[in-house]
């Protein structure tokens, strides 16, 4: 088992090899271990693999480094989650650029039925924070897990408000989980772990914080959720990047509107104006859009959904259902890209699911799960 993890870790740290190429390598070579037993000649035939990448794969140094990462992860109590495991977040699983390996510290179930990401400026105002607290008061009756980035401003306010109203919360970091940034937020981060939250990263132990890691961190924040809220932000910055990723991943995006001319609301107003986010002045709008039920109404909702038993479907149909469950709506072309199935096969499966009432067809030949 440890040997399996060494190859998985090694794949995730190969120089010049991102998640998309790593998954391609596994497919072409027939498995993780087979990648590292390939010849240079066979590697160079794989799309996306050049001399630099082949050299990195064939070097023994990458396996030695992977072994050290594995030992250090055990030392710090960090869980490794591989993209082929059942506990890998299903909201990420079918995204082409999802990391092949995640590092997690804490008890949080990353496949919880309600995940809400909140991002915003590092220079939060009373307007943003007060709205955030009002939302959390309402959300505590619906039990979403709160995801953010532990940064100054709206991020840390989101984590602290979640803790205040007994909502598990997780931070996604742009460095290894053996260190925490900013250190000033260590007390809050520890309380998150004590309250069934988590620290999450795609970067292995020993990875230092660098500017280039933040966009990668932002895409995980966007991908992990069912909906993303931008509270306050300037026209450019990490929150806008998160919103762009969320739109790319077909997530619901909401933004708190602000006064014209306000620097901290400029980005939110832009997202709303360009239809990249829905205006959010009342959290009940989001709750209604997501069809969330309060705890005392949840049992009735669950009883309705228990009729869906994925084990009764073949593997290809299960894959399509899982993808549909992670998108608000999606077209056949995108399904072909994600599921690696022929369009005619997907169309046939969708038609059958439509007859069953499990799938709803939207204008523009887009499809959504009908639960």
Average pLDDT across residues?
91
Radius of gyration: 21 Å
* Fraction of residues in β-strands: 5-15%
The total strand number stands at 12
The oligomeric status of these chains comes to single chain
Q: Provide the structure class.
A: alpha/beta
**Outline, from the CA principal axes?**
globular
Distance between the termini: 38 Å
Strand order of the largest sheet: 1-2-6-5-4-3-7-8-9
Helix-strand sequence? HHHHHHEHEEHEHEHEHEHEHEHHHEHHEE
Sheet bearing the most strands, described?
A: 9 strands, mixed
Q: Could you explain how this protein is built, in words?
A:
There is one protein chain. Helix content is 47%, strand content 13%. The chain has 371 residues and is α/β, with parallel strands linked by helices. It has three domains: 2-75, DNA polymerase, domain 1; 106-290, Rossmann fold (3-Layer(aba) Sandwich); 307-369, Winged helix-like DNA-binding domain superfamily/Winged helix DNA-binding domain (Arc Repressor Mutant, subunit A). The protein has a nine-stranded mixed β-sheet with strand order 1-2-6-5-4-3-7-8-9, sandwiched between helices. A three-stranded antiparallel β-sheet has the order 10-12-11. Helix 1 packs across helix 6 and helix 11 (213-223) crosses helix 12. The radius of gyration is 21 Å and the shape is globular. The two termini are 38 Å apart.
List the topology elements:
Elements: H1 2-12, H2 19-29, H3 32-36, H4 40-43, H5 51-58, H6 61-75, E1 79-82, H7 90-93, E2 101-106, E3 115-119, H8 126-139, E4 145-148, H9 154-164, E5 169-172, H10 186-194, E6 198-201, H11 213-223, E7 227-230, H12 238-248, E8 252-255, H13 266-273, E9 278-279, H14 283-290, H15 295-305, H16 315-325, E10 330-331, H17 332-339, H18 343-355, E11 359-362, E12 366-369
Parallel strand pairs: 3-4, 3-7, 4-5, 5-6, 7-8, 8-9
Antiparallel strand pairs: 1-2, 2-6, 10-12, 11-12
Helix pairs in contact: 1-6, 8-9, 9-10, 11-12
């Amino acid at each position: 088992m440890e040997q399996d993890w060494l190859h998985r870790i090694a794949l995730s740290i190969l120089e010049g090899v991102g998640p998309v190429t790593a998954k391609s390598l596994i497919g072409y070579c027939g498995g993780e271990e087979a990648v590292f037993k390939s010849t240079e000649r066979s590697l160079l035939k794989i799309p996306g693999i050049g001399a630099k990448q082949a050299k990195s794969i064939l070097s023994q140094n990458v396996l030695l480094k992977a072994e050290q990462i594995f030992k250090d992860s055990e030392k710090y109590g960090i869980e490794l989650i591989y993209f082929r495991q059942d506990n890998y977040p299903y909201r990420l699983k079918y995204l082409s650029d999802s990391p092949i390996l995640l590092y997690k510290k804490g008890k949080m179930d990353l496949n919880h039925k309600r995940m809400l990401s909140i991002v915003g400026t590092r220079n939060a105002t009373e307007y943003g924070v007060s709205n955030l607290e009002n939302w959390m008061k309402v959300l505590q009756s619906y039990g979403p897990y709160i995801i953010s980035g532990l940064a100054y401003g709206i991020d840390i306010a989101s984590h602290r408000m979640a803790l205040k109203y007994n909502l598990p919360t997780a931070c996604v970091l742009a460095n290894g989980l053996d260190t925490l940034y900013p250190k000033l937020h260590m007390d809050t981060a520890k309380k998150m772990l004590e309250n069934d939250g988590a620290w999450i990263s795609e970067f292995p132990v020993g990875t230092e914080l660098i500017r280039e890691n933040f966009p990668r961190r932002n895409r995980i924040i966007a991908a992990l959720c069912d909906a993303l809220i931008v509270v306050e932000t300037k026209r450019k910055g990490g929150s806008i990047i998160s919103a762009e990723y969320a739109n790319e991943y077909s997530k619901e995006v909401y933004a708190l509107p602000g006064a014209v001319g306000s620097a901290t609301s400029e980005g939110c107003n832009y997202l709303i104006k360009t239809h990249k986010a829905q205006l959010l002045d009342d959290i009940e709008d989001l709750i209604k859009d997501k069809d969330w039920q309060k705890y005392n109404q949840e049992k009735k909702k669950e009883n309705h959904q228990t009729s869906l038993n994925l084990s009764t479907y073949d593997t290809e149909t299960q894959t399509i259902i899982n993808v549909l469950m992670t998108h608000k709506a999606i077209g056949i072309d995108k399904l072909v890209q994600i599921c690696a199935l022929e369009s005619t096969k997907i169309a046939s499966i969708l038609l059958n699911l439509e007859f069953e009432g499990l799938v709803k067809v939207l204008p523009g030949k887009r499809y959504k799960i009908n639960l």
